[in-house]
């Protein structure tokens, strides 16, 4: 019985046609790419066909016409062509070589082709010819700017594309050029200069920085390219090269601290998704103009294939996507074909990083063993001994001497004690510390390696790029790892002068035989080691995890009531995962005329994920034998988005100073998600055989299908005046299948304006550039499919027949989509010839029609009703400071700093309520609500009989979100060496450290190893907690936990208590304040030391470029939160320890 065999279709065809659709679409795209690249190669070979019908034409004009058709350049002596006489020729679809043979051979001329240049010479010597050719002379000199010399400046000879050089580290150059020729000097960020030689052998050239650095082009919504100076909203760009230096397996982690307002909480556990938010909300990932489905992560993306990442921050920036990208978008542009001088470039990149210690790891005491109240003796681990099933590490003190034993230490029966053959009882073993750090003894040293090989090329009409990547990450938990392989194809084809085709396809395969769990659960190693395993246990002794004689049936562990052997979990309880990800798009661009262009694009994103979960015999689940016979389950999830856009764009300049770009377009989007799950019930009949046919009871299966269709029409207009003022208007109307008419149609308009003030008025010389911008948007949020209609759920089975049940929530049929009324204002200023830049943004979003749940009487059959109600506000500021503080002949220092601040407040509650959940109208909504201690007016904790007392209701304890966030990146260069490093952090915000609370409860916290514990074992009450005790009166609190009246009287707390009683009262009752911390942290995120091999040393090698770098990742962490990394975790998370990583990169170009 195979429940996933396509031939049976036991769950109906609904689950399978998404897969069929995917296969068909993939085949179509693959066929397109095959034809696409075949056409490109055909164009490369056939692109030089010539058609001529000329009579009595000068040879020079004939060659010009041939050059126009074939895009080649001719070099010749004018006298040679003038003496050749007129030409009459009639050819059709002839090759370039055939035409040149006919033209030149009869005239005693020959030709030589070098790349795209053809040199024409005579076949007979002519003495007088030399005098007409300009003689070359050697020209030397130095290139500087206003600060000092410039290295790496390109120096070219005009009309000689193969002749050129670059300035050295001292800014010097030397090359041969015609005595009356022209030299071209090019350098990024500076204006290109043409300098006449005029028979000079020495030239000193001063380059001037570009008046506007804003002329660079950025990618905006729908993949539309715009000049940055004309962009009317906040964007920030990250170059792809910066993502592959100090790598992470998920490239989202490489964006941390690089973009103001983009918050990424990194995770230390293998294969755990980082939390990505833009201005406090989830955002959409767009690849080559095509939005990916909700929930798309970045594991399938390879940094080597990314050209750049542009973050569109506001609702106006992504308005053309409608509600799909209401909260902005992360625009990823992949690399396309780029060839070198010969038209082809082969590149290889390799990176390896090793674990080099921990930034945060739980530390435990090593002085006391398992048990409770100082007593312990193991019999069966199930309660047959003394506290051997209790599950705590409050047992006898370790390493105590006893002269009456053979070992010289106190001896107690333990889980690995041998059995006395005479009595059948366990033989006591020394009660000693066997491992002071079992967690480190269990964990492996992780590593990350990546390899990428790419081939890129350019022909006359086509370009292409093929890339193959492999990522391998070894986890800290033994047996956990991740393999990710990616094939990336991309290219374009110029079909003719009007039509251009472009396509990209990425296929990624992820596989892990097992990945760890970061939750508080019995299959987490920190749960079983750091919280509940005593130091008298040596983790190495548990490595052979089956009980002798019970292999495959019963694990060997230290407690058979609560805790699993960590090696048993690593080897037997596995979570395998596979994911096949296809991201592809193809587009056609047709130039109707010079003003009117048409584009159509289709894209597909498809994730087909599968999990394979195995639970072995004897697995222990929270003190119960929930799966004594094991279990097995399979899950298949398919998530697909197919989207098509068509766009007609008109561009025109009128009245000399006005430019308009206007577009109208339409789109169609299909979102489809299917799920199929099957699992055994009652356990496995045969141990270790993980197959659905091995189920003890009937297999339980389920399937789901979600579909959503959205059609839209949209348009935009950019109107600019003298390139100083730009007005941008957009509008989009969508029709969604997730809402009922008439609420299924909604309009999404935006208007934005930018002013280049520095070109309107004369500013002080120190001010190089000033731009002001503002935007208004009325954004609409779509809803999930089937979330607005009340429908039946599958209930319990009765006599084998499934039942139907209503959900607890009633959905109103007239539900409207949420709306966001957004404002954004900003300014960009550059100083000192663009050496210093400042970008400031303020935004304000009012969110209305928010969906809320209103309680209902259960007599209605429901307990809540979902309606439109609340109104909230989200506002903040973002600041980006960039500059070049130091720049000399050999040395430069560049810095970029990001700052952001976000606040969420309540503007209105449904029904006019003033407070809900402890948050009043007008207050911040990110309140941390928890349990806190009762305190006296002077702040001391109130006790009763020596035990701290808590407020018997949740109170407002602070705010979860940080006060502000920042990132600072520095890069230094000295000749061929480079050094870069970056810091980032979040300042403020509150969190509860549930890990620390559990360490206290279990008796493993280092602070519990003290003399008070010994006194408690002896029945003594010797612990004084300090504070005060209440002697009279009472206190009342409002809903937020603020005191409304207080008549209490106090006296010092002088009551001593049993230390164990105090620990349990403090840390086991869920009192948040007991482990409440400021979440502030600062990380040294990455450090890179690089060296680029000079080209002069590679002349006799096959390499065009070679680079090597040493890298470090997560090198330092400053935080007051113990044992846990506040960057990605809080509460009761049991994540893998955050590691420090070091490694190296190697880059080669051929």
Q: How would you describe this structure to a colleague?
A:
- This protein is mainly beta and 1150 residues long.
- Among the domains are: 50-131, Phage tail protein beta-alpha-beta fold, CATH 3.55.50; 134-206, Immunoglobulins (Immunoglobulin-like, Sandwich); 366-436 and 524-570, no CATH class.
- A hairpin with a 6-residue loop joins strand 10 (182-186) and strand 11 (193-196).
Characteristic key phrases:
64 strands, single chain, Immunoglobulin-like, globular, 22-stranded antiparallel β-barrel, Phage tail protein beta-alpha-beta fold, 1150 residues, 5-stranded mixed beta sheet, mainly beta
* Multimeric status of the protein: single chain
The chain-level mean pLDDT equals 88
Beta fraction of the residues? over 45%
Judging from the principal axes of the Cα atoms, what is the shape?
Answer: globular
Largest sheet, in brief, is: 22 strands, antiparallel, barrel
Rg to the nearest angstrom?
A: 36 Å
Instruction: Give the class from helix and strand content and strand pairing.
Output: mainly beta
User: What is the helix tally?
Assistant: 10
Compute the separation of the termini in Å: 54 Å
- List the uncertain runs: 1-20, 26-47, 126-133
Question: Could you give the count of β-strands?
Answer: 64
Helical percentage: under 10%
Question: What's the quick description here?
Answer:
The chain is 9% helix and 46% strand. The chain has 1150 residues and is mainly β. Among the domains are: 50-131, Phage tail protein beta-alpha-beta fold, CATH 3.55.50.30; 134-206, Immunoglobulins (Immunoglobulin-like, Sandwich), CATH 2.60.40; 366-436 and 524-570, no CATH class.
């Amino acid at each position: 019985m195979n429940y996933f065999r396509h031939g049976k279709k036991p769950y109906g065809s609904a689950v399978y046609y998404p897969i069929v659709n995917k296969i068909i679409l993939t085949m179509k795209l693959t066929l397109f790419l095959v034809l696409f690249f075949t056409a490109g190669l055909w164009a490369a070979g056939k692109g030089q066909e010539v058609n001529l019908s000329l009579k009595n034409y000068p040879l020079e004009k004939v060659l010009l016409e041939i050059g126009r058709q074939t895009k080649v350049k001719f070099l010749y002596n004018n006298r040679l062509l003038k003496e050749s006489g007129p030409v009459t020729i009639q050819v059709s679809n002839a090759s370039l070589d055939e035409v040149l043979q006919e033209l030149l051979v009869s005239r005693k001329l020959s030709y030589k082709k070098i790349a795209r240049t053809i040199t024409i010479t005579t076949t007979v010597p002519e003495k007088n010819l030399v005098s007409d050719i300009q003689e070359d002379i050697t020209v030397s000199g130095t290139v500087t700017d206003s600060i000092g010399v410039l290295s790496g400046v390109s120096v070219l000879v005009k009309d000689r594309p193969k002749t050129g050089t670059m300035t050295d580290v001292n800014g010097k150059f030397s090359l041969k050029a015609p005595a009356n020729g022209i030299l071209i000097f090019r350098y990024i960020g500076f204006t290109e200069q043409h300098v006449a030689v005029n028979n000079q052998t020495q030239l000193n050239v001063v380059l001037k920085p570009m008046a506007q650095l804003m002329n660079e082009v950025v990618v905006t919504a729908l993949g539309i390219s715009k000049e940055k100076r004309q962009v009317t909203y906040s964007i920030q760009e990250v170059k792809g090269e910066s993502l592959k230096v100090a790598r992470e397996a998920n490239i989202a982690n490489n964006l941390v601290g690089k973009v103001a307002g983009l918050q990424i909480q990194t995770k230390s556990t293998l294969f755990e998704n980082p939390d990505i938010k833009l201005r406090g909300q989830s955002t959409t990932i767009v690849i080559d103009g095509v939005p990916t489905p909700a929930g798309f992560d970045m594991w399938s993306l390879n940094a080597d294939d990314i050209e750049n990442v542009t973050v569109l921050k506001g609702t106006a920036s992504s308005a053309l996507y409608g509600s799909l990208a209401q909260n902005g978008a992360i625009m990823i542009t992949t690399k396309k074909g780029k060839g070198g001088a010969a038209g082809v470039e082969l590149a290889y990149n390799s990176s390896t990083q090793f674990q080099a210690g921990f930034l945060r790891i739980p530390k435990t005491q090593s002085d006391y063993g398992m048990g409770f109240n100082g007593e312990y003796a193991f019999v069966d681990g199930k309660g047959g001994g003394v506290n051997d099933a209790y599950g705590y590490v409050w047992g006898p003190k370790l390493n105590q001497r006893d002269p009456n034993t053979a070992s010289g230490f106190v001896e107690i029966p333990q889980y690995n004690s041998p059995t006395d053959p005479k009595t059948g009882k366990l033989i006591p073993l020394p009660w000693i510390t066997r491992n002071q750090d079992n967690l480190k003894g269990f964990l492996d040293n992780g590593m990350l390696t990546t390899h990428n090989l790419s081939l890129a090329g350019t022909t006359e009409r086509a370009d292409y790029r093929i890339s193959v990547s492999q990522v391998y990450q070894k986890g800290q938990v033994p047996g956990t790892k991740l393999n990710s392989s990616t094939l990336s194809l991309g290219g374009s084809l110029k079909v003719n002068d009007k039509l251009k085709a472009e396509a990209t396809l990425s296929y990624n395969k992820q596989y892990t035989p097992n990945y760890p769990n970061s939750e508080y659960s019995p299959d987490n190693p920190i749960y079983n080691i750091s919280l509940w395993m005593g130091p008298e246990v040596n983790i190495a002794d548990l490595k052979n995890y089956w009980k002798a004689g019970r292999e495959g049936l019963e694990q060997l562990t230290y407690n058979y009531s609560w805790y699993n052997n960590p090696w048993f979990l690593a080897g037997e309880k596995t979570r395998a995962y596979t994911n096949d990800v296809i991201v592809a798009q193809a587009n056609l661009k047709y130039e109707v005329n010079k003003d009117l262009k048409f584009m159509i694009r289709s894209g597909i994103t498809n994730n087909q994920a599968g999990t394979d979960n195995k639970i072995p015999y004897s697995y222990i689940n929270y003190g119960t034998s929930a799966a004594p016979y094991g279990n097995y389950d399979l899950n298949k999830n398919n998530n697909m988005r197919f989207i098509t856009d068509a766009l007609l764009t008109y561009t025109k300049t009128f009245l000399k100073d006005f430019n308009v770009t206007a577009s109208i377009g339409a789109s169609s989007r299909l979102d489809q998600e299917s799920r199929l799950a099957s699992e055994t019930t009652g356990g496995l009949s045969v141990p270790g055989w993980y197959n659905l046919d091995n189920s003890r009871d009937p297999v339980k299966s389920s399937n789901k299908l979600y579909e959503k269709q959205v059609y839209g029409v949209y348009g935009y207009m950019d109107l600019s005046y003298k390139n100083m003022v730009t007005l941008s208007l957009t509008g989009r109307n969508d029709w969604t299948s997730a809402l009922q008419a008439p609420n299924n149609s909604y309009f999404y308009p935006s208007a934005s304006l930018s002013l280049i003030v520095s070109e309107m008025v004369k500013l002080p010389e120190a001010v190089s550039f000033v731009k002001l911008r503002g935007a208004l948007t009325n954004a609409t949020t779509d809803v999930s499919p089937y979330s607005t209609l009340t429908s039946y759920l599958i209930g319990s089975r009765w006599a084998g027949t499934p039942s139907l049940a209503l959900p607890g929530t009633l959905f109103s049929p007239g539900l409207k989509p949420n709306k966001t009324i957004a404002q954004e204002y900003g300014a960009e200023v550059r100083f000192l010839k663009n050496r210093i830049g400042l970008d400031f943004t303020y935004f304000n979003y009012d969110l209305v029609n928010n969906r809320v749940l209103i309680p209902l009487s259960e007599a209605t059959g429901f307990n809540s009703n979902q309606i439109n109600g609340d109104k909230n506000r989200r506002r903040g500021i973002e600041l980006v400071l960039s500059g070049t503080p130091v720049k000399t002949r050999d040395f430069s220092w560049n810095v970029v700093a990001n700052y952001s601040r976000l606040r969420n407040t309540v503007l209105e509650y449904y029904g006019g309520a003033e407070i809900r959940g402890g948050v009043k109208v007008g207050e911040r909504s990110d309140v941390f609500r928890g349990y806190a201690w009762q305190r006296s007016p002077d702040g001391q904790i109130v006790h009763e009989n020596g035990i701290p007392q808590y407020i018997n209701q949740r109170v407002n304890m602070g705010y979860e979100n940080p006060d502000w966030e920042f990132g600072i990146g520095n890069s230094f260069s000295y000749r061929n060496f480079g050094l870069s490093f970056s810091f980032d952090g979040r300042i403020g915000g509150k969190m509860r450290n549930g890990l620390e609370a559990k360490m206290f409860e279990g008796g493993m916290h280092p602070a519990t190893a003290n003399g008070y514990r010994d006194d408690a074992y002896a029945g003594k009450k010797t612990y004084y907690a300090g504070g005060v005790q209440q002697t009279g009166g009472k206190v009342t609190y409002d809903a937020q936990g603020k005191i409304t009246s207080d008549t209490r009287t106090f006296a010092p707390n002088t009551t001593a208590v049993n230390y164990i009683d105090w620990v349990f009262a403090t840390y086991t009752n869920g009192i948040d304040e007991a482990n409440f911390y400021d979440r502030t942290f600062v990380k040294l995120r990455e450090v890179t030391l690089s060296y680029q091999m000079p080209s002069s040393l590679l002349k006799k090698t096959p390499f065009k470029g070679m680079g090597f770098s040493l890298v470090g990742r997560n090198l330092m962490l400053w935080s007051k939160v113990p044992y846990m990394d506040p960057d990605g975790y809080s509460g009761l998370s049991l994540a893998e320890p955050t590691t420090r990583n070091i490694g190296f990169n190697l880059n080669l170009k051929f």
